[in-house]
Amino acid sequence: MAYKGVKFKTVRRDKKIPTGQRIKELKYWCKKFHEYNLAPPYKGGSYGNLSFRVRRGANEFIITGSKIGLKGALTNKCFVRVSHVDLDKGVVYSHGIKKPSSESMLHFAIYRKRKDVNAVFHGHCSEILNSAKKLKFSQTCKKEPYGTMRLVKSVLKTLGNRNFIIMKSHGFISMDKTLKGSGTAAIKAHERCR
Q: What's the predicted TM-score (pTM) here?
């Protein structure tokens, strides 16, 4: 899989860098995803993106920026606040200096559909994908291109009330009420593959 950048239009509302205690926690989980190879590196970034809902009841979220490597020391500049997404027009409204992650439309759609979810972690792990059937993880019907509405619709069709699903031949999504819950579930899924 080769990353070729975002596939939506970005409207940057301002360059205000996100701050707050939960960004520190998000940095911790980014590091863990790298350590467990749940977001493998590529030249210039990592395959995967992590986010959390800004406040209960809103679809606004903080997400890793596009082409961010989870391996190194992350600063707040590596994160973007997404205040709105127009799924029909393929437009993401952001705040920060980086482009939002290529899966920002997917994160938005999950937050909009699942009010109980406050953290969405998307990773790529061959062990999890190869063990999906054996471990009975729910998965989308077929592979869809990253960063597209086809992928979003496929995930929403599979999602239901599940907190861990596989995107066929692509990656996984771990969701929970907390960042810790999303991260722990992904690590446990990885450990079950051994």
A: 0.95
